[in-house]
Amino acid sequence: MAQLSNTITFTDEQAMLLDIATSFFREKSSITTVRRQIASESGFDRELWGEIAELGWLGIAVPERFGGSGLSLADVTVIIEPMGRHLAGTPLISTQLFIQALLAGGSEQQQREMLPKICNGAVGTVALFEGDGDWNLEHLESQAVIAVDAARLSGAKTLVCDAAVADFVLVSVALDGAPALAIVKAADLPRERRTRETVIDETRRAWRLEFDGVSVPASSLITGDKARAALRAISDAALLFAAAEAAGGIAGALETTVEYLNTRSAFGRKIGSYQSLKHTCAEILVGLERTRSHVYHAASLLAAGEDAEVALRMAKVEAGDSFVYAGDRAVQFHGGFGFTYDCDAQLYLRRALWLQYAFGDATHHRRRLAELLLPAG
């Protein structure tokens, strides 16, 4: 294995973007707003999405010739972290995964057609997982069969985030036994083919999509090595964003916990004055800093064009474990109230449990890290 760079790069522009995004989501995604969106069917605020598009955040990692800013995933990451801190429900991550797949594997025609629309506010998502729950993105049961100039799809995908509001869905399929991707426009996917799924993180909307009989033009396919490159790009971005979102969530859970500990009294003292609770909060803070270090290390490697697989998997493992710990303690420290739906701490724990399994749990990634880092035999 090549020596892994330990450089973390964080530019002045990223620091400025982080400040702006932190203020934005603090104002636009209060806990009252989050709870109102949870109660809605869509879970999605189109006006807020329009503001995000106007700020140019959708096209940060899109080349300037397609209407973007020509920056990198590292610059998107500094927006994802505060979005996670305030539990904002937006299709930003789904759309960024769609963008990364197109940039890695899409044809010039596909990029010219889709990316400017995305920069202007269209929503994209990716449909990757099937009923067997395999996190290997190249293990595919869904199929595509080409007939003349169209591709007929079959199979179903599960846990497709933001599918109901997406303008474009990028679905992974097997074509002649090899991985491929098909771009499906929302108008070509009948509403009755979408089934809302119940997921533990109620700030999200996930759907099961059935593609039997759905056809797309052959020009909407991504095949061969480009398909594998697109799947790798999706995986890299997904691991980075899940870890960044978790870092924000840890900060939010810690803030919620400390605020309660400094308010609630027992035996004539604020309960936050007890050593055992202080020590646990310190452990959560250390976990937050470890996670942020992993996230921005991986982001720096990706921005530099280096192989970041080890760093990304380590970031995902650290973020998942630390966020679940923070969310669990946040609920525990609120006592009996923590187990009620009215306690905000449970929202963070629900988010943590979702992210812990998104794109692979800790065991899955540690097994792959062992293959990458330990000598064979």
What would you say this structure looks like, in words?
The longest helix has 38 residues, at 224-261. This protein has a 4-stranded mixed beta sheet with strand order 1-5-6-10, covered by helices on one side. The model has no long low-confidence stretch (mean pLDDT 95). Strand 7 and strand 8 (206-210) form a beta hairpin. By secondary structure, it is an alpha+beta fold. Helices cover 51% and strands 14% of the residues. The chain has helices at 12-28, 31-39, 46-54, 73-85, 92-105, 108-119, 224-261, 275-303, 309-333, 345-357, 362-373; strands at 124-127, 143-147, 150-154, 156-161, 168-175, 178-185, 194-197, 206-210, 215-217, 221-222, 265-266, 269-270. The chain has 11 helices and 12 strands.
Structural class: alpha+beta
> Total helix count?
11
Strand content: 5-15%
Number of strand segments: 12
> Which regions have little confidence, pLDDT < 50, spanning 5+ residues?
none
Pfam families: Acyl-CoA_dh_1, Acyl-CoA_dh_N
Domain Acyl-CoA dehydrogenase/oxidase C-terminal: 242-372
GO molecular function, one term: acyl-CoA dehydrogenase activity
Protein name: Acyl-CoA/acyl-ACP dehydrogenase
